[in-house]
Amino acid sequence: xxxxxxxxxxxxxxxxxxISDLKEGTNFYTADDDFLQVASIxxxxxxxxxxxxxxxxxxxxxxxxxxxxxxxxxxxxxFFDIDNSYLSSDFLNPGDLSILYNGGHAFKxxxxxxxxxxxxxxxxxxxxxxxxxx
Length: 134
Hints:
Layout: E1 2-4, E2 12-17, E3 25-28, E4 39-42, E5 66-72, E6 75-80, E7 86-92, E8 97-100, E9 104-109, E10 115-120
Antiparallel strand pairs: 1-2, 2-8, 3-4, 5-8, 5-10, 6-7, 6-9
């Protein structure tokens, strides 16, 4: 499920990929110019990543993009537009993935215990406050 801005209809705010909707093979969800690159790899008999390293490549980011993978429990996620107005909500179950490209988000725990991976672009600068509470 892709969530788009109501202000700029071409601007992707977020995306939820349910584990039950994964397609076989390697599938990228993010565009080439997104700060995070997210893909799923499923039931791919030919899958192999040969030993390799990545060359230094200076990249510039303008904002934080985040992804979350729910491992255990259930959570509700809310998405907010670029003007901070509420857009939509959905629920994540174990194995589901959510990506935030633009706008804002909130989580609410819906089960007694959760385990959640959070991935975001770096580097992290502890002297710069990049969050604005809504």
